[in-house]
Amino acid sequence: MRRPRADHRALKVAFLFIGMPVGGAEDFALGVYPHLAPEVDARFVCLRELGMLGEEAVAAGWPVELVPLFPRKRISPLAVWKFSRWLERERIDVIHSQTYHAHLFGVAAGRLAGVPSILHQQKTLGAMPLRKRVLFQICLQGAKKILTLSEQTRGELSARFSTPPKRIEVVPNAIDGDLFRPTADKRVIRRNLGLPEDEILLGTVASLHPVKNHKATIEALAILRRRGLSPKAVFVGDGVARKDLENFALEQGVGEQIVFAGRQRPSVPWFQALDFFVLPSFWEGQALALLQAISCRLPVIVSRIEGNTAVLGENHAGYFEPSDSAKLAELLASATTDAANREALLARNAVIPTCRDAARQLKRIYSEIA
Q1: φ and ψ at 5, to 5 degrees?
Q2: Cβ neighbours of 7 (radius 10 Å)
Q3: Given 3.40.50.150, 3.40.50.2000, 3.30.1180.10, 3.90.226.10, which CATH number is that of 186-344?
Q4: How confident is the model at residue 1 (pLDDT cuts 50, 70, 90)?
Q5: d(CA 70, CA 106)
């Protein structure tokens, strides 16, 4: 039986991850952490490895713990039991899991230890294999609270998994507006980053994964090249598709136009260096990079998918269908050749949630379920 929490003690919250690579879920937790109220004693818990962002947090002196109970993708009952004992020893009051395998581990161990868990669904819902769907359903039933990034995902979770809407709350992605803001002189930033100082520069900050659909941008650049336009582009990020994308860019004749910059931290100057931002993803929960680009007052060209329309509304001028590289090429050409067209792509009416707002919302949720 778990001991009741003393009223005067801060709520102990475990942000649970398998590892912390560069990603939206990890950035969300790291962004919110400094703004949590003193009544919340949060820590980051990694079950396999720290990852790049976990190591950054350690270097910054933040509370990160490696509890290596999940070395492979198969979850063992013994590991779950060991983690439940760890939760009891550490007197954790709330588990806040951020990714699928962390949900499986956290909800199961939390049930054994009597610790309420929060399942934070950071992505939109795609098709799921039967086994994954069944396990996800079990996690939803076992979690005390479910968080989503948008109202649409909230509705889909409720409908597809028969989850009572009152158990689901929307906590949108959030950014630190003190960090992500426009710059007065792109030339200086570009010089420091080794980027072309005087050319129109488009780009993205996203993992190099097929779901991000970077091939559409490369195809669009190839279309523009055939029309006599050769804008420069920078892809900030890394991932399994990098070599394939580099080869594809060479095949399309635009290899020299694209800088594959790899993972870059901090990411702020890479946003500030751009003239406009492109995000051609097939799906997004709610892209943190899009919020960061908007906060840096960049014109944005994005695929028409739920995660993007939730931020920009239905009538943004910079939409294209993810499979329509020709339409993307038109938008890129318009933004490249005319400053007025770039101005029309600014998301002037987008509401950008702040990390302080998210921290206040999470503090309330933790207090309600602990």
Answers
A1: -75, 135
A2: 5
A3: 3.40.50.2000
A4: very low
A5: 12
| Tokens found for residue 155 | 């509705």
Long-range contacts of 323-327 (CB under 8 A, 24+ apart): 323/216, 325/216, 325/219, 325/220, 325/223, 326/220, 326/223
Q: Give yes or no for residue 177 having a pLDDT over 90.
A: no
Instruction: Tell me the fold of 11-174+354-369.
Output: Rossmann fold (3.40.50)
Per-residue model confidence as pLDDT tens digits over 27-61: 999 999 999 999 999 999 999 999 999 999 999 99
Q: Assess contact for 341 and 335: CB atoms under 8 A.
A: yes
Contact 280, 205 (CB under 8 A): no
Q: Is the dihedral of CA 227, 230, 236, 241 positive or negative?
A: positive
The span from the CA of 116 to the CA of 142, in Å, is: 9
- Give the up-direction half-sphere exposure of residue 136: CA atoms within 13 A in the CB hemisphere: 20
* Residue 80, pLDDT score: 96
How many residues are recorded in the chain? Answer: 370
Q: Shortest CA distance to 180 belongs to which of 56, 280, 289?
A: 289
pLDDT tens digits, residue range 252-263?
A: 999 999 999 999
Return the number of other C-beta atoms located less than 10 Å from residue 40's C-beta: 21
Beta-strand runs (E) in 181-256: 201-205, 232-236
119 φ/ψ sector (left φ>0, alpha ψ -120 to 50, else beta) = beta
Query: Could you give the CA distance from residue 295 to residue 266 in angstroms, rounded to a whole number?
Result: 15
Note the pTM of the prediction, 2 decimals: 0.86
**CB neighbours of 108 closer than 8 A, spacing ≥ 6?**
75, 80, 142
Classify the C-alpha dihedral 248-249-252-255 as positive or negative.
negative
